[in-house]
Description:
The chain is built from 2 helices and 10 strands; from the N terminus they run αβββαβββββββ. It is of the alpha+beta class. The protein has 2 domains: 1-36; 46-176 and 199-213. The strands form 2 sheets. A 5-stranded mixed β-sheet has the order 4-1-7-8-9, with no helix packed on it. Strands 3-2-5-6-10 form a 5-stranded antiparallel β-sheet. The longest helix is centred in the N-terminal third of the chain and has 41 residues, at 3-43. The model is unreliable at 37-43 and 179-207 (pLDDT under 50).
Amino acid sequence: MDGQTYAVRLRDLEARVxxxxxxxxxSHRRLALLSDTIMTQGAGGSRSEIAFxxxxxxxxxxxxxxxxxDGAVQYNRQDETGALADQKDIPIFSGSVPAGDHTISVVxxxxxNGYGVFTYLRGYKFEVKSSHSFTGVEGKTMTVDATALxxxxxxxxxxxxxxxxxxxxxxxxxxxxxxxxxxxxxPAPATAPMPGAPAPQGGVSGSAxxxxxxxxx
Length: 217
């Protein structure tokens, strides 16, 4: 190879190296732009945290729980062994949702549970249905808790006791939740009112339809 040919090939190689460097630089810039776009989108949008809490007494054994968000099933479990009833806190959904209105629907099935003179409770079956609408806000996290509990007292008929109470809390995206009782924490929501009473303030709602099967009515 003479000197002139070598010089031509060397210039060609240098040009190819420069072109490759330029391509790598453009790729890095595109990746940086994509990363910035993802981070920007992550900082906006709306998130939702949904959980279910079972505060029913031992007289009601939870045998099935079905939870949907905007018609899509998020949790569906049926269990007759008591394992589901023992699970008092169940995370349902955690993720991004479009800003705007959304609806959560809950269907719970309970089996009456009793011993000795209260064995007749086992003949009762209860189905509790409730829906709750919330609004996703841009740049905010909406925490929604659905709590199954008993209303009334010892004189309240069994079929009138089961209900579902809803609690909402809004936080900025990325904010850490404040433990209950800590300085600056929001006061605990009030208990759901009895039928006919005005709804309490503070993001609490309680409404449920109950159907009863078996046993005495």
